[in-house]
Every structure is written in C-alpha cells, then in structure tokens.
Amino acid sequence: MTVDFRRHPSTLLPLTISDSPVSTVKTFKFLGTTISQDLKWETNINSILKKTQQRMYFLRQLGKSTVRAMILEFFSAFNTIQPALLREKLESAGVDCQMTAWTFDSPCCLPTGIQHNLEEGHHRPRHLGGGSTKWDRKQLNRLMKRSSYVLDSPLDSIEKDVTVTLDVPLGAISRVEKMGGASSRGENSYGLDITCKDMRNLRFALKQEGHSRRDIFEVLFRYAFPLSHGLPLFAYLSQEKYAETGWTIYKPVEEFRRQGLPNNKWRISFINKSYDLCDTYPTVLAVPYKSKEEDLRKVAAFRSRGRIPVRARLSCQATGGGYEGDEYQNAELIFLDIQNIHVMRESQKKLKDIVYPNVEESHWLSSLESTHWLEHVKLVLSGAIQVADKVSSGNSVVVHCSDGWDRTAQLTSLAMLMLDSHYRTLRGFQVLIEKEWISFGHKFASRIGHGDKNHADQDRSPIFVQFIDCVWQMTKQFPTAFEFNEHLLLTILDHLYSCRFGTFLYNCESVRDQHEVRSKTVSLWSLVNSKMDMYLNPFYTPESGRVLYPVASMRHLELWVAYYIRWNPRIRQQVGLLLCLL
User: Fold this and answer.
1) What average pLDDT does range 536-556 have in this prediction?
2) Distance, CA of 7 to CA of 279 (rounded, Å)
3) Looking at the predicted structure, is the pLDDT value of residue 266 above 70?
4) Which of helix, strand or coil describes residue 176?
5) How far is CA 51 from CA 58, 147, 553, 577, in A?
6) Which of 389, 378, 407 is nearest to 548 (CA)?
7) Which pLDDT score is estimated for 318?
8) Contact at 8 Å (CB) between 124 and 118?
9) Which residues sit opposite 285 in a β-bridge?
10) Taking the chain, what is the end-to-end CA distance rounded to the nearest angstrom?
11) Inter-axis angle of helices 83-92 and 569-581, nearest 10
12) φ, ψ for residue 253, nearest 5 deg
C-alpha cells in the first residue's frame, strides 16, 4: 500500500522489486486494525461495528436464556462496545494513538497509557490533525445506545467528558516522598512520589506556586499512616452495613466437629481461653486425646512463644521454633528449602522492578527468572504437596518453621486445600484463611505494616500474597475444582492492604480482642457474602473426597499477570483484548 502525502497527488507509477511487479492494495489489516490508503478510519470502524453487532446478538441470546447473571456480566464486560475497547484494540495492535488520526476530544477516549499519564499529573496530549469523522462518531454512538438497551445499563457516549479518577486506598500506600525542589526545572520534575504495597508507584507532578505540595504531602502522610500519628485505622471509621456478618463465618468448635472431633485420638481444649498459655494462639485448640492440661503447660514452657504442636487437619500438626528429628521415633525429617521472610521480600521487590512502570519485553524471561519469585512459589507448593501426600497416606506430619506463623501457615493451609474439598468452596476458603492464618497468629500487622510509616521495617514480607499466588496456581491447574474465582483472590489481596475491613488487622487474636475488632469493624467476608455471584466459578464441579496434587515445576507455573502487572497500562490492554477475543 502506498500513501501519498502530497497536496495534489498524481497517478503513481507501478512498483517493481528486482524487475518484478508489486501488487498494491487500498487497505490491509495489521494486527487486527484495518488501515486504509487515505488514512481514514471508516473501514476500521465498520469492521469494529460489524464485530460488535455479532457479539451483541450473542449477548441477546444469552439474555433470553436462563444463564447465570455472572456469566452474562462477564461476557458483557469484555464484549460490549465501549470507548475503552476501541482504544485497546488500536493500542494492542501497536498503533500509537498519540501519533495517529484516531482521536476523540474527551479524556474517556484517550488511550489507557495517556490516561495513566493524566492520572499521574501529566499534561493532556495535543491531538494531531485528521481524526474520526462526524459519521464515525454518529455510528459508534448509535451502537452505544443499542448496547445500553441490550445490557439494560446506560453506557457513556464516546464524546461524553468523563473525569479521570485514580482509586488508591490510603492503606495501600507504603511510602510518600517529595520529588524535586524550588530550583527544579522541566516538566514533571516537581511533585510527589507515592510507593504502593500493591505493585504500583505513582508520580504526581505539581506546580511550585502556592506551596500546594506541602499541604498535600502533610495531609496524605498523616492519613496514609494513621497509627504513626495517633489516629485510628480506617476500618474503625467505616460504618458499612451488610445483611450478614462475616465474623461468624468461622466457628472453631463447629469446624472441629465437621472434621470428626473429638474422637479417640484428639480432643478439644479451652486451656488457652485467656491467652495465658500462648498469646499468639486462638482460644480453642485440638490437642492429643491423652494429653493433660498440666502436660500442655509444661510443653509450652519449652516452645517458642509457647506455640505448642496442635492439630491443623487430620494428623497434620503445626508448630514453630527450629526443627525436631531425633525426638520422634520412626520419623522422617525433610527440609523443604523454603526461604525466610527477608528473601521473599527482596524477591517481590525485584519482581516489582520488572513489571512496573515498564515491561522490558526483549529480556522478559531472563528478568523474571532473576527475581526467583516463581522458584519460591514452586518450593512452597512442592512442600505442601509432600505434606498432603503423607497425610493422605495415613501418616502424621509435624510442620515446622522459625515461629510457626509464616511458612507453617503456608504449608498447612495449602495442604488442607489439596486434601479437603470443603476448603475449595467459597465459604470453606474463608474458614481456611480465618483458621490457619488469622486465628493462629500470622503477623499481618508486621508483615503488611498497616497504618505504619516505617516502610523499611524488616518484618515486612509478602508471605500471605505468596500463599494466595499458590492458590491461584492451583485454580489454573484445576479449573473446575474451586467454587470461587480469580476475582475473589484479587479482592482478598486488595483488602489485605486497604484497611477498609478488620479481617487482616493486627498480629493475633488476643490483640484483636484488645482492640475490639469484631465489634467495631466490619469483616471482609460480609462484603464477599453479600455479592457471592461475583466470586463464583461457573465451571465449578463439586467432587468430595478428591485430593488435588498440582504440578510444582517451573514449566507448569505462571506469573499471575492479572495481579502483578495489572497496573501496567500496556499489559492491561493486552489482557483485556485477549478476553475480548476469547
């Protein structure tokens, strides 16, 4: 195809290469985008309109059938014609919307990458000449109206001026720094840098006049780190109301009874009802049937922080403080080589560096390998598989780590997920997290740093994130075995940081009781169980008694793009387009 930019183009001479004639075309399709010789977008828009009309027909048929609302919402979310879809199709096809004639005079229709710049305080780009015609916009608006009717939900006009917003929970902020000084010159050289806990960094360019940065910095710093300023966490200020309280989702005695306790091997003990045996353990414990209360107290005196071995599930016992080998006869000692919290923290930092704000595609695989993140995920999954296999074979397993609240929680909860199909249901998974992580004292406050300005605290580590990553890996390998979907996992991690709910606040049950978390804050499960359809897997097939053994090899593990790279504009477009095409 030949494009003639002259004001008065003349007839072009035939093209030849090595004395062979070259055929010319007026249009051709490049990476899904139809490009015409006159550089107008009419042909491409017609193609998009046709494709969207076909999908709307399918959507209408779904609406007429008794299809679950969630499936209909999923289809409409990725297959209806919206400005975001238009720009995604263009940019994912490699078309730089800042340098082409494709443009609408509205921020809502700017390419995602440009919107990202707007959100971070950059100037709006200057549109070049050409652009979509009045007819193009009329056709697209007409289709938008039809889509609104089919979806029974109003869609914005492609020419509507929409305010660009940036949704960042204050609890997700890890660090706020001033950028530049009074002598700084150049665009975007003066403002604020915000480092978030959820894999994104933000830069806001501000004007130097009027000391606006100082006021914004002080307010942001104060409310992003309330505990460092004597203020309550946001969960105590939020007064959300839900029909169901999530605080009752886990009832220890009922859960033990579901597992067949008490029996001739195990009994339920309330020895820790006042937290005087172990202040980081729950009040209700399952202990060996023949053990006496005074024996438990003697054992606790020799354990790290009094964390005695207790029953997690079947014969999988959890404990902390070094390792034991010779003390148990007929026992096999296995070291799993899972690294400590500091190694995991550095690995996640390296991962963040390669996914945000830019992804270096030419060195992507080697860069990902250098982070060792998937290697750590593999070792955690592999360890859990060994635990599950031993328990499934009728053996008892004692799981150890330094203190019993990091790697132990990862291994026991993953093993229980593999062994017990109940924990693979939506409510069962909530119980699993409450039981193995929250009640048994994973140090959420220390590992996440809720409301604390000390971003360099060496206790911070993505241990729980790593666990959820392992769960995601399992859902990928067993797509019909889990009642919940990826959206639940993303929601859990978002609110791990947000401080909107009390579920993940503080380090253990005793401290939560001191701060009256259950009476003064709302549980995350209240939100989840009020909108259960959003979190259900439409492909779920219940199979009680089935033990899952995921493949823990690098060939079968994937980087969780929808979580780790979701803030990268270009990757978001590619993921969205892929779902569209599917």
Assistant:
1) 94
2) 82
3) yes
4) strand
5) 11, 13, 40, 13
6) 389
7) 58
8) yes
9) 269
10) 31
11) 100
12) -65, -45
Question: 562, 282 in Cβ contact below 8 A?
Answer: no
**Vertex 250, ends 247 and 255: CA angle to 5°?**
165
DSSP state of 439: I
Catalytic residues: 401
Q: Is the dihedral of CA 315, 321, 327, 333 positive or negative?
A: positive
Residue appearing with tokens 């929409």 = 162
Number of H helices, E strands in the chain: 21, 12
Euclidean distance between CA atoms 550 and 555, whole angstroms:
12
Burial of 329: CB neighbours in 10 Å, binned 0-12, 13-18, 19+: exposed
Whether the full predicted model's pTM is greater than 0.85, yes or no, is no
Residue 419: pLDDT over 80: yes
Q: Are 190 and 209 in contact (CB under 8 A)?
A: no
CA contacts within 13 A on the Cβ side of 433: 25
Report the distance separating Cα 578 and Cα 582, nearest Å: 6
Collapsing DSSP to helix, strand or coil, 556 comes out as: helix
Contact residues for 511 (Cβ-Cβ < 8 A; gap 6+): 445
Distance set, CA 257 to CA 260, 286, 409 (Å): 5, 11, 21
Distance CA 466, CA 470 (A): 6
> Cα(81)–Cα(77) distance, rounded to whole angstroms?
9
DSSP 75-133: HHHHHS--HHHHHHHHHHTT--TTSSS---SSGGGS-HHHHHHHHTTPPPPPP-S----
The torsion region of residue 191 among left (phi > 0), alpha (psi -120 to 50) and beta comes to left
Amino acid at 445: A
Summarised one tens digit per residue, pLDDT across range 311-370 is 764 655 555 555 555 566 778 888 898 999 999 999 999 999 999 878 888 899 999 999
Tell me phi and psi for residue 211, to 5 degrees: 55, 35
User: Does the pLDDT at position 123 exceed 90?
Assistant: no
Give yes or no for a contact between 1 and 30, defined as CB atoms under 8 angstroms apart. Answer: no
- Mode of pairing for the β-strands spanning 316-318 and 397-399: parallel
Measured between alpha carbons, how far is 320 from 310 in angstroms, rounded to an integer? 10
Domain ranges of the chain: 15-151, 170-224, 246-581
Beta 191-196 vs 201-205: how paired, if at all? antiparallel
Closest CA to 384 of 462, 471, 314, 451: 471
DSSP helix/strand/coil, 202 = strand
CB neighbours (10 Å) of residue 14? Answer: 8
**What pLDDT does residue 416 have?**
96
Widest pairwise Cα distance in the chain:
101
Q: With left for phi above 0 and alpha for psi between -120 and 50, is residue 297 left, alpha or beta?
A: alpha
Kindly report the average pLDDT of the chain as a whole number.
Answer: 81
Contacts of 131 (CB under 8 A, 6+ apart): 101, 102, 103, 104
CATH of domain 170-224: 2.30.29.30
C-alpha angle 559-560-562 in degrees, rounded to nearest 5: 140
